Structure formats: C-alpha cells, structure tokens
Amino acid sequence: MKRTLILFAALLVLFGCQNKAHHGEGEQSFLDDYGRMINTPTNPQRVVSVSPAVTEIMFDLGAGELLVGRTDFCNYPEEALAIESIGGISNLNIEKIISLNPDLVISGSMVPETCIKQLADLGIPVVCIIEKEHFENLYENIARIGTLIGRQRAADSLNNSLKAQISVLDLDYYERHNGQDDQYRPTMYYVVGFGKGGDFTAGANTFINEIIHLAGGKNIAEHNDGWSFSREALLNTNPTYIIIRDEDADAFCRTAPYNKLAAVRLGNIIRINSGMIDLQVPRNIEAIKIIHAAIQ
Fold first, then answer.
1. Contacts of 115 (CB under 8 A, 6+ apart)
2. How far apart are CA 71 and CA 86, in angstroms?
3. Are strands 241-245 and 187-191 parallel, antiparallel or unpaired?
4. Which of 100, 111, 126, 210 could be a cystine partner for 135, CB 3.0 to 4.6 Å?
5. In what order do the strands lie in the sheet with 187-191?
C-alpha cells in the first residue's frame, strides 16, 4: 500500500511538471455543459475521452490520433480498441489517466463528480460534453468538440454533411396535412429494456424520440415521462413497428406476452445497432435512414 502511495505521488509531481509545458502553448476559455469555465489548450495533442460519444465524434472529425485514452465502452469505430483503456465510466482509473499525461480530458454525463474534481484539482483540464434531449443538440456537440480540439472546419463540414443526408429523405408526406400528420404516421416503440426487470423505452424529452419522429414514425411513448413504460400500455397500443437492438430482437420476439404484438407477428421488427440510437453521435443519421426505409 505504501509503495502504491509513493508511486501515485511521484506520478502527480511528474504530471504537474509536464502539464505546465503543455499549457504553455496557448489556452482558450471554454464553458462546459456543467457551467464551468475551464482553460484548455488551443490545440491539445494528448486527449483522454471518458465518453463513447466523444470518442466516436473525435474519429469522425479525423482526430482519432489525438486520443491516448478511452473507456472500456468506447468500442466504435474499431480503431478505438487500439487505444489504451482507462477503465469504466463510473470507476475510472485515475492513476492510469495521470500516467497517460493528457493535456485534456473530455467526459460525458455518467462520470462521477468526485472523479472530475480529483482530476481538476491535479491541474488536468476536464471538460464535460453531455448528451442532450434534442436531436439538434448533436450538431452543437460536434461543433463544441471541434472547438475544443482545434478542428472547427472539420466539425462544420461534418455537420453540413449530416444535415444534407437528412434533407434528401422523403419526409414531406407526413407534413402535408395541415399539421395533422400524426394520424398518418405508423406507430413505433423502441425497446430499451423488457422482461422480468421491467419495460423501458425512450419517451418525451429524449433525442431518441426525435429520431423516431424525423424518420417518419410516431413514438407511442412520446408523452411518457422517464424511461419506465407500462407493459399494459404497450400491449393495448399495439404499435405497428418495434425498434430494437439487434442483439435483443430474437429474445424479445420469443418472449410472452411480446410475441402477441402485431408487429412481432407481422415481422415488423426494425433491428438496429445500439450505438446508432442510444448514443448522440453522427450514426444517428443511419438510424433515421434505417427506420425510414423500413416503413416505406
């Protein structure tokens, strides 16, 4: 135990010296999503990501080479797996992060406040970029991460590309009825959890709800507060389509009483990669395309 404490103290001293050198190259003030004004390097060269969404966005910005650390859950794209892991999200390995000598740490909403404070107290800039309730916030997060890592042009280009991909989808049909478009939309239910543990889905005030709407569907849980959903309401509403993670689809379709749903009996199951819809990332556009194509 004593040797561990001595090693940890030595790492702190080493990091303190090296970190000053990093920050001497120029700084910018950045207001993160927790309302903290933080001084960050203008062109960070060693970034630790504590968010799968941040990791994915950085690769999409062509900045994967800046990453020196990522969580166990940062598994997309495949190239991310070659980056050293700093553990889970709720149980970060602080010593490991220090040993990687980062000049910037970017976290998401699941990181414990104590970990953020511990890193900040060591002089490591920690910026929180969290996933938000509206789909449009995706563009905002991309732009903010681009600013953080000195890739503003790449962020603008990526956002323009994503918006262009949505614009070519034929979504106008659902908006042609003087605002009364809901009656023309097929009903949908996204399975977040099911079975003995309870039924869970994305309801009001979630970007997932807006993904379903953008794709042309009507989320039967769009007025539901929170993530828990009544199984009775699911069975009574009997949605036309079920959206579900690919790895959960077979078990869901075999399990009573879900196997009695019309969507299951008719094969109206939209299988989707969980990362495309559970994270607020550029792949959300692919989720919209998949759902939209399934209902044509």
1. 92, 94
2. 5
3. parallel
4. 210
5. 218-219, 187-191, 241-245, 269-272
CA triplet 192, 266, 208: central angle to 5 degrees?
Answer: 25
Spatial neighbors of 168 by CB under 8 A, at least 6 apart, are none
For 23, residues 6+ apart whose C-beta sits below 8 A from its C-beta are 39, 41, 103, 125
Instruction: Supply the pLDDT for residue 180.
Output: 52
Contacts of 79 (CB under 8 A, 6+ apart): 59, 64
Phi and psi torsions of 38, nearest 5°: -125, 140
Q: Please give the structure tokens belonging to residue 201.
A: 């889905």
Task: Sort 237 into a burial class: Cβ within 10 Å, 0-12 / 13-18 / 19+.
Answer: middle
Q: Give tens-digit pLDDT for 159-169.
A: 999 999 988 87
Q: pTM for the complete prediction?
A: 0.87
